[in-house]
Specification:
- The protein is mainly alpha-helical.
- Helix content is about 55%, strand content about 5%.
- It has 26 helices and 12 strands.
- It has helices spanning about 1-10, 15-30, 55-70, 80-90, 100-110, 125-135, 140-145, 155-160, 165-175, 180-190, 195-210, 215-230, 250-260, 285-295, 310-320, 360-370, 375-400, 400-425, 435-455, 460-470, 490-505, 525-540, 555-565, 575-595, 600-620, 625-645, and strands spanning about 75, 110-115, 120, 235-240, 240-245, 305, 330-335, 345-350, 355-360, 550, 650, 655.
- The protein has a 4-stranded antiparallel β-sheet with strand order 4-5-12-6. A 3-stranded antiparallel β-sheet has the order 1-3-2.
- It is elongated, with a radius of gyration of 37 Å.
- The protein starts with a helix and ends with a strand.
- The relative contact order is 0.08.
C-alpha cells in the first residue's frame, strides 16, 4: 500500500491519518493516472450511469467500518456487510446495488474476503481511519470520550484527533487517570492539530512530576506505564504476528525503571531525556527492564520481550530508512538469548568488530597507565620481588642438592608472611609505602645473598648451575641484577624469568654496595620503567598478543570470585602473597563488578594489575582455568573503563511484542 502511495505522491505523508487517507484514495481509484494526483480524480460521470463519486464511496465504507468497530470485529458475514452497505446507499440517488458496490470495492482491494463469506478491510488500521472519518462527519465524538480506557478505540481516536478538536478526549483521559488513558492523552497531544494550550501544559506537568526527586511512587509508576505502552504502540509488523519497535528505549523511560528498581544506571550515562536512547545497559539489566515494562503496562497490555537476532536483521533490511541509527558505527542491540544461555545475546552490525572484545594491546596500554601510579607500582614491586624468590626456590630445588633447596625454602617461608602483612595495607588510600617497600626489598636482597652463599658452598655443582642458568654470581646486587634463566624446562621457570626481568625494569637502579637499594628511580626514568614493567607483567600473565578476549560483563563478578577462591584451596598457604592478594582482589572486584555504586576509573585501576599478577602465578602453578579467569577479569576491567569513559560502542534495547 505504501509503495502505491509513494508512486502517486511526491513523498510519504508525515502523519498516520494523512498516510491512510492517501492509501484509501489510491486504492479507491480503479485506474489511476500516474501523472495525476489522487486528490484530483477525473470528473465524475452522470449519476444515472450507476457510478458513485469518491466521497460517496468513502461515506458508505466509513459507515461499514464504524459498524465493525462498534461490534468489535475485524470482519462481517457477507449478508451483514451487504445490509450495512444498503443502509449507506439509501442516501445516494445513484442506481447501484449493494452487491455491485461490494464487488467494486473488493476489486479495488479495500475489502477482502478473509474467509469464505466473511469480509473485512485489507488492513485493520484502514478500517480504523474510516471509522474515525464517520465519527467526525457525524459528530459522534462523545463516543470516543467514553472509550479512553479501551485500547480497541485507541487508533481510531488518534485518527480522529488528527483533524478535529482533541480537548474533550484529553480532558476525559485526565479524569480517568489510568495507564491506557494517559498513554492516549500523550499521543493525542502529539498527533492533534488542535489542543488547548492549558491542556498541553497540564499534560507536561503530569509527565514532569514523575521525574521530580520527591515524586509519588504510584504516580511515577503510572507515567512509566504510559510511556512504556506508548513506546510499544510504535511497533511495526515484522511477520508471523510479531511487531518490533523501530526506535530504542529512551532515557526517560529507562530512568524511571532505574528509580523504581534501583538497577545500576547504564554505562553510557542517564538523564530523563525523551530524545536520547538509553545505551550501555548490561545484558541482565535489559532482561530486568523487559520484565519491569510488562509489569508497569498491566496485564491487559501486549507482552514485550527482547527481539531475536533475525528480527533485528529483518528490521534493518525492511525499515532502514526509519532506523538509520542501526547503521551507525558501534550500533548494537541486546537480543533474546533463546536457548543459548541465561543472558541475552548481542546483535552487532555486519562487518563491525564485537564491542565486547578486548585485545592484548588494549590490556597492555591500560596496564602501562596503571603502573605509572607510584602506589600501584610499589605494590606490584612487592609482589614481584617475592615471585622472583619463589621461582629461584623452584628452579634450584630441582637442580642442586636438597640442602641448598632447603636453605632457600626456609627464606621463602620467612618472607611470605612478611609480604602478606605489607599487602594487607590498603595502598589505594595509604600512600606512605616507602617503609614497607624497603623492608620487602631488604628481604629479597637477603634471599639473593643466601642463594649466592649456597652456590659458593656447593662448589663444582654450584658453578655448573651458574653456567647452566646464566645466573649472575654477584647476586648481592639484588633486584637490579639480570636474573636471566636460560633454562626453560618448565612453565614455572619461564614465569620466573619474566617476573625477574619485570622487577629489574621497574627498579632501574642497582643497590648500594653492601646495603639496601635506592628508594627511588632516577629522574626521567619512571615512565619508561613503568612501561617495561607493565609489558613484562602482561606477557608473564599469558595475555594473548593476537586476537582478543571477549568479555561477558554479567559474568565478571562470578568469574573473579571463582578465580580468587582457587587461591584459598586447602593446599594453598593462606599466608602466602598470592592468597592475600586474591583475598583483596575478591573484595575490590565484588564492589567493582557487583555495581554497588557507579564505577569510578580510579577504583577500577586497582583490580587489573593484581589480576594479571595472579594470572601469572596461576599459570606457574598449572592452574589453567584460574589463569584464564583472571585474564578475563583484566580484560573486563579494561572494557569497563572504556565504557565508563564513553569510548566503547554501547548497547541499546529494542522491544518486540506479539
Amino acid at each position: 500500500m505504501m509503495v502505491n502511495v509513494h508512486r502517486y505522491a511526491s513523498a510519504l505523508p508525515g502523519s498516520r491519518a494523512e498516510l491512510y487517507r492517501k492509501i484509501f484514495q489510491v486504492m479507491l481509484r480503479s485506474s489511476p493516472d500516474a501523472d495525476s494526483e489522487p486528490e484530483d480524480p477525473p470528473a465524475p460521470p452522470p449519476a444515472e450511469s450507476g457510478a458513485l463519486r469518491r466521497p460517496d464511496k468513502e461515506r458508505v465504507l466509513a459507515g461499514l467500518a464504524f459498524t465493525m468497530m462498534k461490534r468489535r470485529v475485524r470482519d462481517l458475514p457477507r449478508q451483514q456487510a451487504l445490509d450495512n452497505i444498503a443502509h449507506g446507499l439509501r442516501r445516494n440517488p445513484a442506481a447501484i446495488t449493494p452487491r455491485e458496490f461490494l464487488a467494486d470495492i473488493e476489486h479495488s482491494g479495500i475489502l477482502v474476503e478473509r474467509e469464505r463469506g466473511r469480509y473485512g478491510f485489507a488492513h485493520h488500521t484502514l478500517g480504523e481511519y474510516l471509522a474515525a472519518t464517520h465519527i467526525r462527519d457525524n459528530r459522534h465524538s462523545r463516543l470516543l470520550t467514553k472509550q479512553v480506557d479501551d485500547v480497541w478505540w485507541r487508533e481510531t481516536t488518534l485518527m480522529y484527533v488528527a483533524d478535529a478538536d482533541a480537548d474533550p478526549i484529553v480532558q476525559a483521559c485526565l479524569r480517568s487517570h489510568s495507564i491506557t488513558a494517559l498513554t492516549l492523552a500523550f499521543d493525542c497531544a502529539r498527533h492533534s492539530g488542535a489542543l488547548a494550550p492549558e491542556l498541553r501544559r497540564r499534560l507536561d506537568a503530569v509527565r514532569a512530576s514523575a521525574f521530580s526527586e520527591n515524586a509519588d511512587p504510584a504516580h511515577r509508576r503510572l507515567v512509566a506505564g504510559a510511556l512504556a505502552a506508548r513506546h510499544l504502540h510504535s511497533a511495526l509488523p515484522i511477520g508471523d504476528g510479531r511487531h518490533l519497535c523501530p526506535q530504542p528505549v529512551a532515557q526517560d523511560l529507562y530512568w524511571l525503571f532505574v528509580q523504581e528498581t534501583r538497577t545500576p544506571p547504564p554505562d553510557g550515562g542517564l538523564a530523563p531525556d525523551p530524545g536520547r536512547p538509553a545505551v550501555g545497559a548490561w545484558g541482565r539489566d535489559a532482561q530486568r527492564f523487559v520484565s519491569w515494562a510488562n509489569a508497569v503496562t498491566g496485564a491487559d497490555a501486549p507482552r514485550c520481550q527482547l527481539p531475536t537476532r533475525d528480527e533485528v536483521r529483518g528490521l534493518v533490511a525492511k525499515a532502514g530508512s526509519i532506523t538509520p541509527w542501526l547503521s551507525e558505527p558501534g550500533a548494537c542491540v541486546w537480543t533474546d538469548p533463546g536457548g543459548n544461555g541465561p543472558t541475552p545475546g548481542l546483535w552487532v552490525a555486519a562487518a563491525r568488530p564485537d564491542p565486547r572484545a578486548v585485545s592484548g594491546q588494549d590490556i597492555l596500554d591500560a596496564a602501562v597507565a596503571d603502573v605509572a601510579d607510584d602506589v600501584v607500582l610499589s605494590q606490584l614491586k612487592l609482589v614481584n620481588a617475592h615471585v622472583v624468590v619463589h621461582m629461584l626456590d623452584l628452579t634450584l630445588t630441582h637442580a642442586v642438592d636438597a640442602s641448598i633447596g632447603l636453605t632457600i625454602r626456609d627464606l621463602v617461608r620467612t618472607l611470605d608472611p612478611d609480604l602478606a602483612r605489607h599487602l594487607a595495607h590498603d595502598f589505594a588510600h595509604d600512600r606512605d609505602v616507602t617503609q614497607a617497600l624497603e623492608q620487602a626489598r631488604a628481604h629479597a636482597l637477603e634471599c639473593t645473598r643466601a642463594v649466592d652463599r649456597a652456590l659458593t658452598q656447593a662448589g663444582e655443582p654450584g658453578r655448573r648451575l651458574v653456567a647452566a642458568l646464566g645466573l649472575d654470581r654477584d647476586l648481592t646486587r639484588g633486584l637490579g641484577a639480570d636474573l636471566t634463566l636460560g633454562l626453560d624446562h618448565t612453565r614455572r621457570s619461564a614465569v620466573g624469568v619474566a617476573q625477574a626481568r619485570a622487577v629489574r625494569a621497574a627498579h632501574e637502579q642497582p643497590a648500594e654496595p653492601g646495603g639496601a637499594p635506592h628508594a627511588a628511580a632516577e629522574p626521567g626514568h619512571e615512565r619508561p620503567a613503568a612501561a617495561r614493567f607493565a609489558e613484562s607483567l602482561v606477557r608473564s600473565a599469558g595475555v594473548p598478543e593476537d586476537g582478543g578476549i571477549t568479555v561477558d560483563l554479567d559474568a565478571l563478578a562470578e568469574t573473579a570470585r571463582q578465580a580468587c577462591v582457587a587461591f584459598a584451596e586447602p593446599e594453598t598457604d593462606p599466608e602466602s602473597w598470592a592468597a592475600v592478594v586474591a583475598g583483596r582482589l575478591a573484595e575490590t572486584s565484588a564492589a567493582g563488578f557487583g555495581r554497588r555504586r557507579p564505577p569510578a576509573l580510579a577504583d577500577l585501576a586497582v583490580i587489573r594489575l593484581p589480576a594479571l599478577a595472579l594470572a601469572a602465578e596461576a599459570d606457574a602453578r598449572r592452574m589453567r582455568d584460574t589463569g584464564a579467569r583472571l585474564r578475563a577479569v583484566a580484560a573486563g576491567i579494561t572494557l569497563l573503563q572504556r565504557r565508563v569513559a564513553g569510548e566503547a560502542p554501547l548497547e541499546a534495547i529494542l522491544l518486540a511484542r506479539a
